Amino acid sequence: MLFKSNAMYIGTQTGYPIGWDFQAVSKEIGAPCQEAVVNTGTALYFLGTEDFYAYQGNGLPQPIGESVRRWFLNTRSPNYKNKMTSYYDAEQRVIYWGFVSNNSATGTIDTVLTYNWTSGTWGVMNMTMQGFMQILNGQITFNSLGTQYTNYNSLPNISYNSSYWINFRVTPGFFDTANTLQALAGAASGATITTNAFGDDTYYSSMQQFKMRFKQQPVSGTAQWQGTDSMGVSATATTVANTGPFDNASARFDIDRSARWHMLQITFTGDFEILEWYPMMIQLGRN
Fold first, then answer.
1. If we measure between CA atoms, which residue out of 219, 228, 227 comes closest to residue 268?
2. Among 120, 101, 123, 99, which residue's Cα sits nearest to residue 45?
3. Quick check: helix, strand or coil at residue 70?
4. 107: left (phi > 0), else alpha (psi -120 to 50), else beta?
5. To which H or E segment does residue 4 belong?
């Protein structure tokens, strides 16, 4: 594949005397730089001029970024459109795109957008970095051999050409602004979640509780309820209140607030994985 800023071509090896023959896939969709394109082995995922796309070698590239496209275009710095870094974690099937946001005064990459192509879910991380790097873990070298085995007689009875000696695991990593290699691994210290809006234009409702189901529960959590009578209004027309404490055993927040539309901003500490959430709501009449 050959990408330009507003075009993409597919090349075919035709042999002598032409060599490569390039045919246009699209003369409207392209990529701003090499790092905007990620190869997963079965498809190319890339950032175009106005959207994210997937291309599997036939037809036109398919847009996949409807849920994040507007946020990304508003967040990315227009002065550094061509400055990106990318990485594909094949084990987790997660694609990372690091880019420069409007908050970066010096042009340092400070925001990472992630995409799991099997589930179609997106995520975002805030961290300053220079670029992604692949880290190989678990290899046995001559320098580490003496710390693992006291002498040659204590070595395991495994042939020298066995894959045991070169066994390793790949971990995504990155170089920070201090030129230090960091690994994107380990337990999370916490995260913040903003839920979708719950409610209806035709009636008020009372959100009694907000329940969750975890695959791994967090250590603790807090939440802030936001209620409004009309979607799309300014922040001054939104009522904000703290919820009850996080009930870890029942995986819920007690709310007891009334509005047409309800939304929560939740902050969890510790490593966690959430599977679903749903509100317990009661209708309060109709307009």
1. 219
2. 120
3. helix
4. left
5. strand 2-4
Whether the CB-CB separation of 42 and 118 falls below 8 Å is answered with: no
What single DSSP character describes residue 249? T
Instruction: Give residue-wise pLDDT tens across range 33-92.
Output: 999 999 999 999 999 988 999 999 888 999 999 999 999 999 999 999 999 999 999 988
Integer Cα distance of 145 and 164 in angstroms: 13
* Pair 152, 180: CB distance under 8 Å: no
Two tokens, residue 79 = 């002065």
pLDDT tens-place string over residues 94-151: 999 999 999 998 999 999 999 999 999 999 988 899 999 988 766 666 666 666 667 7
The residue type of 194 is T
- Return the structure tokens found at 172: 């995504």
